[in-house]
Amino acid sequence: MAAKTNVHDLLRAKGSRKWVQLHVDSAAEAAAAESAGILVLSCEADHSLPAIRAAAPSALISAGMPHGTSATPDEAVRAAFGALRAGADAIYCSHSPRFIEAMAREGIPVTGHVGLVPNLAAWTGFRAIGRKADEALAVLRKAKDIENAGAAFLEVEVVPVQLADHITRGTAMVTMGMGCGSVCDTQYLFSCDVLGTNTGHYPRHSKRYADFARLEAELQEKRVAAFCAFVGDVEAAGYPERSHEIWMDEEEFEAFAKGATRL
């Protein structure tokens, strides 16, 4: 088994290595990612985390803290320690810098987020962030606030390439780039986009390398066909056959029948 990838490895390699990063939804995806040499993963901090950890023992895993589940920094610290015990190496947090600072003070590696932050899209809409100078400056200020709070990583999502490059060059944090060119320290996509499991909208920055939605539709058709065949077989008395059944020897059944009359 390869050596475990840790926070120090990414920080030490900043500026000299480009990491491939993938958000995974299952242990099967995590195992496939590690087999493909992808050693930076993200996932949700839920019941799937321990299995994902076991499936990708060499990868660094940033587990997402659901936005709003921690109402105070103290609650965030407790939740983060729970995720670390479950197998996470870092905690993704889209909360304010005061939550990040509380976790960082306890030695918890934190991933902040700037640009298009889906949890905060009510304020921005789902669009590229930072095309105008004033908005780009606001993104940069937020990045600096996150760094000052002690974050180790910074997800940079759907911002202009020039802005992502400026942030990456000016910060000690490892930048995780999604939809902002190739200038960040990691190149980050979601497995659902890579595998083509979505049946709806695909972001402009995504790229499909498989069509799992089609394969799943074919599998579903085969499931329905098999279940229909089962129903028809039962209704036509074709199932169960003698080979599917268990029968007592005649003598044993007669002994049982006699004993049953006394109960």
TrEMBL record:
Homodecamer; pentamer of dimers. SUPFAM superfamilies: Phosphoenolpyruvate/pyruvate domain. It comes from Paragemmobacter straminiformis. One of its GO terms (biological process) is pantothenate biosynthetic process. InterPro entries: Pantoate_hydroxy_MeTrfase, Pyrv/PenolPyrv_kinase-like_dom, Pyrv_kinase-like_dom_sf. Its EC number is 2.1.2.11. One of its GO terms (molecular function) is methyltransferase activity. The keyword Methyltransferase applies. GO terms for cellular component: cytoplasm. This is 3-methyl-2-oxobutanoate hydroxymethyltransferase. Keywords: Methyltransferase, Pantothenate biosynthesis, Transferase. Belongs to the PanB family.
